[in-house]
Write a structure and sequence with these properties.
This protein is of the alpha/beta class. Helix content is 35%, strand content 15%. The strands form 2 sheets. It has a 7-stranded mixed β-sheet, sandwiched between helices.
């Protein structure tokens, strides 16, 4: 069982520079036996996993796991226009973080939530070595975008990256716990705007391209996805489970 975060002091994060311009953090465990690279979802940021989400980072620290994380471009404390992220670039940032972690001696695990799940899975597709396991939570692996829309969006995104293509995501779908929804709604670091074309186009391109590679996935993986998820269809995790070789 997890030790209670309320009975353990969550060590304050230290700055972590991965060399790509994004804001990085590390929450060191007192006696680490493994490290975990955590990638947040769209519209949020890394420190929410210490302050919200049942203080996940504190639980991990109590288990001897040091947590490393980065804020995506346009998110949290990273620079960039709010909410505007190129998912392919986010994968390169993730791989840069992994290269740094590879220099330390402890086992490495990866965890990604929602968009962070796609970023994490894409990182593993491109380079599967050097990690002990992967945790994917409500991963945005298959967004069911038609081929004509997907193909048309790519050149348009280069010219009109900020054009809104979807209304703001509804905070009420983040949780069935009112306090969690209110925290997200009132948090000024959360992105509450419309979904821009650059994000939508890069998301659809990468999520589609990955499927030809998932059949070769052999890395141990833990999948978590609520069947009543209204933001990311749980069927994408089911399809992933049925496809991978692991």
């Amino acid at each position: 069982m997890f030790a209670s975060a309320s009975n353990n002091t969550i060590n304050a994060p230290q700055d972590w520079d991965i060399g790509t311009g994004v804001k990085g953090y590390v929450w060191q465990a007192d006696h680490p036996r493994a490290v975990l690279l955590l990638q947040h979802g769209y519209g949020e940021y890394a420190q929410r996993y210490a302050q919200q989400y049942s203080q996940l980072i504190g639980h991990l620290q109590a288990q001897g796991i040091s947590v490393y994380a980065i804020d995506l471009h346009g998110h949290g404390y990273s620079s960039g226009k709010r909410g505007q992220v190129d998912v392919a670039q986010a994968v390169q940032d993730h791989r840069a973080a992994r290269r740094i972690l590879a220099a330390q001696p402890l086992p490495i695990f990866l965890m990604g939530h929602s968009l962070g799940g796609l970023v994490t899975a894409s990182s593993v597709v491109q380079q599967s070595g050097g990690i002990q396991g992967v945790i994917l939570s409500s991963a945005a692996l298959d967004m069911n975008i038609s081929a004509p829309v997907r193909l048309l969006s790519q050149p348009l995104a280069k010219v009109f990256p900020s054009v809104p293509v979807q209304p703001p995501l509804k905070a009420k779908y983040l949780s069935r716990i009112d306090a969690q929804v209110n925290n997200a709604t009132d948090d000024p670091l959360m992105y509450h705007g419309s979904v821009p074309l650059q994000f939508g186009a890069s998301l659809s391109k990468l999520s589609h391209a990955n499927w030809r590679h998932y059949k070769n996935w052999t890395t141990p993986v833990l999948l978590m996805h609520g069947t009543k998820d209204k933001l990311v269809p749980y069927q994408s995790s089911t399809r992933f489970l049925e496809t991978i070789a692991a």
